[in-house]
Amino acid sequence: MKSHDKIATRLAQIINKFNSGERISVENLVEEFGVTKRTIQRDINERMSFLPIKKADGLYYLEEYYLGKLNFADMQNFAALSGVRELFPSLQENFLKNILDTTVNQAYMVKGHNYEDLSDKTEAFTHIELAIVTHFLIEFDYKDKHRVVKPYKMINSKGIWYLAGVEDETLKTFSFKKISKIVPTSTEFEVDESVNDTIKDDDNIWFSPKKIEVVLKVEKDVAGYFSRRDILPNQTIVKELADGGLLVSTKVAFDEEILKLVRYWIPNVEIVSPDYLQDKLEDGLREYLR
Description:
disordered N terminus, 11 strands, 3 domains, globular, SH3 type barrels, four-stranded antiparallel beta sheet, 10 helices, Alpha-Beta Plaits, five-stranded antiparallel beta sheet
């Protein structure tokens, strides 16, 4: 079993064990779920850092005052936070009870993204989390430059963590793995709700006040992929074509963002507008072939 298989059900079952008052060993969880020791440690130390988990004699347990406080609503919230709320047809109480049953969950396997290893970044993760919650500025080094940022949200996109924050009055995205020398400050900032709205409403992680609207023609052979889920950021199906293809629109922050996606789908996707983007794509391909 790969480390990302059954992540949603694994976390839910571990939380349920804690909530039932069990004292848990990493070794037993490794054997039960068929994952690595590092994966279980990351589950407990990072993904469940919101819980008052203690360790004694090599066993992990939930503090007594918290026992029984986790309910199915908490599990639904955790599913939403983990980005797996829409993974299953339902997350109602009966479905969750069934899926937590060892016999029933053998029917499922989830193959998601491979997540970057942040086992050495726990302290940095916590510093940023605290700064976001308390609305304090944070300082760090990024791409050989010292930054002072208003942190708004930690975002995971395709298995990679990013910090969305405001620097010099501009909303920017920073790859968490590349952030170093984090210094928490005691300088509070006023939260701008319009920034939170932008982060929430934009499918993309690259924010720009001026978006480029792009229209693409999708051939019928791959149209089903675009119909079933959003392949592109801010995707809208404009028209279903007579031959079974699609006209699809998207909004991106910069040229390369859409060009790399179109390259992946060649020869089944073509840029209809703006014209310069299709020209730029073709020029790049000719240069590559040379």
